[in-house]
Amino acid sequence: MREGVCVPNVTFKCRSGDIVEGGGCGFDEGKWEDCTTKDLFGNKRVVVFSLPGAFTPTCTSQQLPGFEENYDAIKEMGIDEIYCVSVNDSFVMNKWLADQDITLVKPIPDGNGLFTRQMGMLVEKSNLGFGPRSWRYAAVVNNGVIEKWFEEPGRCDNCDDDPYGETSSENVMSYLKSATVKESVAA
User: Fold this and answer.
1) 10-residue block means of pLDDT along the chain (187 residues)?
2) Residue-level pLDDT at 29
3) CA-CA-CA-CA torsion for 17, 22, 24, 26, nearest 10 degrees?
4) Residue 16's pLDDT is what?
5) What are the extents of the domains in the chain?
6) From CA 65, how far away is CA 60, in angstroms rounded?
7) Is residue 35 annotated as part of the catalytic site, yes or no?
8) Which superfamily is assigned to 11-186 in CATH?
9) What's the CA angle centered on 38, arms 174 and 111, to 5 degrees?
């Protein structure tokens, strides 16, 4: 993937209303909703980051909480929304965010890996028993077009390492700050 390319046109299968007070699941209250990339990325400037999986160590301890903690600061730099995508189903994504007290970053469940595959970021992680998952990346997407791309080095199938740094919230914020400065100088 690279800057200037449109994100793929995909429909995600999302659930809402399943998590009830006390952390349980109330499946009678929940419902399926189709959500498209146009719904998520159209006419907005957003940050999207992808990670190997819900409940995994680096994703849970660093990447997801980093974007949650910096949510307001990122939005102040001209961002409308922040999304986390993973090759997990909606039930898992919703439960993970609820367990981590994530209330600001929005999940994108890519259970079939269709979006991730079309982004060119689907890798095999069978060495860990995961199967196909996303390589770690982040992007600033402006009205469906990738404005800035961040990718961890060493993308390959069954990688022994899980690099993290390029796709951190701090790195994305550094870009947004420099883009904001360039815009104000140009004005």
Assistant:
1) 94 85 68 94 97 92 96 97 97 92 96 97 93 96 98 95 95 92 57
2) 74
3) -40
4) 87
5) 11-186
6) 7
7) no
8) Glutaredoxin (3.40.30.10)
9) 85
Convert 32-44 into a string of H (helix), E (strand) and C (coil): EEEEEHHHHHCCC
Question: What per-residue confidence (pLDDT) applies to 168?
Answer: 97
* Strand, helix or coil for residue 68: helix
Contact 86, 118 (CB under 8 A): no
Give pTM, 2 decimals.
0.92
Q: How many CA atoms lie within 13 A of 146 on its CB side?
A: 18
The answer for residues whose C-beta is within 8 angstroms of residue 184's C-beta and 6 or more apart is none
Residues in the chain: 187
Q: Which of 6, 35, 59, 159 is catalytic?
A: 59
